[in-house]
Fold this sequence. Notes:
The chain is α/β, with parallel strands linked by helices.
Amino acid sequence: MAEDTVLTGAETVALLLAEHDAETVFAYAGTSELALCDAVEAAGRLRLVNARGDKECVFMAAGTSLPRANRGVAIVHGARGLTNAAGALADAHRNETGTLVIVGLASTRSARFLPPHAEPDLIASMGTFAQWSWEAPAIPGDAPARARAAEEFVRRFRDALGSSARPPTRPSIFGIPQDVAETRWIPAAELARPWCPPAPPVAAASDLTRATELMAGAARPLFLLDDFALAHTDLREALARLTDLLGAPVLQLRYRRGPMLFERLRVEEVGNFLGWFNPFSEAHRALLSDCDLFVTLEDRNIYRRVVGVVPPCRKVAITSDGGKVRKNEYLGGGDMLLEGEVATTLRSLADGLAGRTGRWFAPPGEAAARTTPEPADEAVERLRTAIVGAIGQTLSGWDAPALVDDSQMFGGLLAERYELLPPGLRVYGDHGGFVGGGLATAIGLAIGDPSLRVLCTLGDQGFTNAFQGLVSAVQEQARILVIVCNNGRSVSLEKQAAVSGGARPGGRDYLGNVPGFGYRRVAEAIGAAAWSVEMRPDAVEDGAHLLKNVLAKAESADGPALIELGLPSDPAMWRGIWLTQGFDEATADRSAGPRVETR
C-alpha cells in the first residue's frame, strides 16, 4: 500500500483487525455498518459472517474469542442493535471473554436529531458492560486537527483491542459514526506508527517475596481455585510445580445452583488435585480446618454462601482482579493479595521455594466429592451415569472436542459425573446466567474454528430463548452438536420456589414449557438434522442404547445436529442437583442436614 494512500475509517478498521490477528467478524448490519462490512469482506485475512441477530452477533464473537481474545469481533447497529445486544455484552463481561464490539453510529451530521439508530451518550452508557469504550468524534475540518484526529483514531482502535486482550479479559466497545466510516480521511502511514500493547499485570516483587516466605513457613498449605484460573495459559503446569514443591492439596470450587458446569482440573494435570470441593463432606471440611495457609486462585465466588466458613489461618489470594476477591470478605489484616497474571505469579513463587518431602494430607477419595444432603436413588444414579457415559464416549472420539454449557439442571447432572468426560476436553460455562446465550456462543466457537468439534448442552427453556442462533449454524454448516434437555418445565425454579413459597402441586404453570412446542421440529424447520430420545430411570439400558445410536448419527451429520433428550421432571430425578441449602452464617453441620456418602 502506498504511503500517500488515504483510507476510509472502515478500511482502517478492517486493516487493523487483520493486523491484530482477528479472524472472524460477526455482523448484523444496518445502514451505518454497510461500509464496515464491505471493508471487512474485502480484507483477505478476515471472514465476515451474518449472525442474523444483534445479541447473537455479540455472543458469537465472544464464542470465537473463548480460546484467544479478539479472535472474533462483532459489528452491531447503533442504538437499537447495541441495546438489543446488552445482555450478550454483559454476559461476555461477566465471563471475562475478551472481544471487540464495533458499533455503527448515526452520522455526526444527523445524530443530534436522534434518528432511530441514535441515542444520547450511547457508548458511554453501554460502556458499563465493557472494560473499555470510546466513540469516534466528527472529522475535523482543518488539516492539522484532522491529522491529530487520524492519529487518535488509529491509536484508540488499537487500545480497544489491547484492553480486551489484557487479563482479566473483557469486552471493549468502539463506536464509529457512519460518516467517519465512509469518508477517506486517514493516511495509510498512520498504521505504521509504533504502538505498544498494554503489559500484563504483574504482582509486586515485595509481595511475592512475602508470600514466598509465608508458603515456605507453612506446614499444611491448601489451594482452592475457581474455574476462571483455568483460562490462563500454562496455569496447569505452573500450579502443578508449585503444589508439588509444597506438598499441598488442590480443590476446585463447585457451583451447586444456577449454571453448574465449568471446566475442572484433572489429577493427570495437577498431581495433588482432589476434585470438586464439597462443603457437605466431613473429609473436605477437615482438610480446610487442618490447613495453616489457605491459598485461593482467581477467586470470583469464594464466599460463605458457596463454600461455608473459610479456615481462620493466614490466607494468600492470587488473582488478576483484586476487587473480585475483596468483595468476598475473607482477607484480614495479616493476609495477602497478589494481583497480576496468575500463571506468572505461580511460577515466581515456585522459583523462590525449595522442595519438600511428601504430602501433608491423605486424599479423601471419590466418595467425599459425592457427599450430599439430597441423595438420589440407585436407579437415578445409574441413569445419570449412563447419560454422561454416552456423551463422554462420543466426545472421546473427537480430535479437538469443546463443550459449551447453557443449562442449569442438565449441567449439574454432567458435573456430577465429570470424571466420565474425556481428558483434553475444553469446557466453557456461563457465569453470567444468560439463559439461552450459550447456544450462540457455542455456534460462534464452531464457526470461528472449524478444526474444533463443539457440543452445546442446554435446557429446554434456554433453547426457546436461543434457537435463532441455529440459523447461522445452518448457514455456515458449523460442526456443532446440540443436546437439549427437555424435562418439561423449569425444574430449578420449581425447586427454588418450593423452598420459599412451599409446594404447590399442580400449580406454577408459568414455569412449564410451551404446550406443543417441539424442539426437534424447530431445529428441523431451520435446516438442522435432529432426533429425539426419551430416557427414564426404569429403562436405563434401553435408553442408553438408543442415546448412543443417536449420538453416532448426530456426530456424522453434515452441519449442525440436535438431539432432544427427554428426561423426567419428577423431583426424584434431580435430587442433589440445584441445592437450596446454603452456608452463609451457618456452619456446615447446621445447614447441611443429613449427609450421605454416595458411590
